[in-house]
Amino acid sequence: MMPNHILVASEDRKVFLLDIPASIAAAQAFADEDNSSNDNLERTRLLSCTPTSAPYASTEPKSASARVKVKNHGKYDALHDIYSRQCEDALRFVRVAVGSGHFCLERQLNKPGSAPQKRKRATSPSIETARKGTDATPDPSKRLRCVVKASFPDDPPPSLLFQIDGYVRHRLDAKDPAWTVSSTLGEEKLYAFEVRHWGIGLACYQNRQEPLKICLKPLDRSPEVHEQHLRIPPGSAFLLGPCHVPAGTREFQGLAQLYTDSEDFDMIYLDPPWPNRSASRQGAAWYRTERSVYDMEQMLLGMDLGTQLKPQGFIAMWVTNKAACRDLALSLFKHLKLNVVEEWLYLKLAANGEPITSIGGLWRKPYEVLLIARAPRQASHPPPGVVRRVIAAVPDLHSRKPHLKSLFDELLLHDPVLGLPRSKAKVLEVFARNLTVGWMSWGDEVLKYNWQDHWA
């Protein structure tokens, strides 16, 4: 029986229709995925937005000569022709499978008594404004970060109160940055570390088999700084900290050894903040992006991810349709001696089942590409042919993609080379915006969709 968030799947497992909010909830074990009647399960829904009802207005070149001029400047035009045919075939299958049904599940638009979420949000106030108590900033990760900053003054030594599920309270002090929380609920290791010019980062590895609830409270009980309630999925680890500074990388390596028992990862999954003029214009309201492809290259190389990957492990990386971004990903794979083995296309649909833009469009593609690479089993053997899959979904909040845990499990747990036991794949997600059951997640927005105000 398919999980609830997979609405359609082809027999060869190369075409899928997923529901984005439900896939994120399922990956965090915050949803009843098996339709069971277990009353102990905490049923909750991720807040979303109204799905786009029809395709966007066309921005394509009007004249034939203009189209020819644009197409002749495309480095990967032949590849995009292949992608277009793949998407068209997948869309035909999905439409037949859906029939008179819906292309996404019903969405939870808002909490009772509050306004619904919007797909585009106004620019948020500055961090300094948020630290003074303004409750208007739309980014919960930044709000959490501000709370942490406000609770960790330079003098006296920083400290913060953690309340775990209402049973245990512990104080974190800069002089004693690591401790173990022990209770009837299990044992978790929690850490804090200083990052210059950034503030305080938090790290946690929890080995319980049920979600962990955390309440962050300021010690001074200041009315301007509110409590923050978070839920941490079972068996997950996180590092709330920047990926672009050496201190963050050092802390990541220490936590990774704890999470993997000093083994390496079976997969490293990245959705990098590629340079994006649209996101940059919106400022902090959406997310931080790198200024240039060069800056992105320096950050990715500085993470030294190759030393954390098993010899036959996978690296999966989202790329934009900009040629320079794809070139950088391919050069990184070459640097790590990896070959692309699969390409997954995220095909964006309107609620009526039409692509949000023309599949054969020149200016704007209705799909994004996930490149999956690994080292060849023998260096002398030619790489196998690339397997392509299409994952269709109706977009919700800006830049939020379908969660791929269930599909990655199929890839990893059935891989004869890795030979992994059931449910034992060790996955690292970099630039994550939410936590995942059994994964380690790293990024400066890593708790964004674990914050209680994103759920109803």
From TrEMBL:
<dbReference type="InterPro" id="IPR002052">
    <property type="entry name" value="DNA_methylase_N6_adenine_CS"/>
</dbReference>
<feature type="region of interest" description="Disordered">
    <location>
        <begin position="108"/>
        <end position="140"/>
    </location>
</feature>
<dbReference type="GO" id="GO:0003676">
    <property type="term" value="F:nucleic acid binding"/>
</dbReference>
<dbReference type="GO" id="GO:0032259">
    <property type="term" value="P:methylation"/>
</dbReference>
<comment type="similarity">
    <text>Belongs to the MT-A70-like family.</text>
</comment>
<dbReference type="GO" id="GO:0005634">
    <property type="term" value="C:nucleus"/>
</dbReference>
<protein>
    <recommendedName>
        <fullName>MT-A70-domain-containing protein</fullName>
    </recommendedName>
</protein>
<dbReference type="Pfam" id="PF05063">
    <property type="entry name" value="MT-A70"/>
</dbReference>
<dbReference type="InterPro" id="IPR007757">
    <property type="entry name" value="MT-A70-like"/>
</dbReference>
<dbReference type="GO" id="GO:0008168">
    <property type="term" value="F:methyltransferase activity"/>
</dbReference>
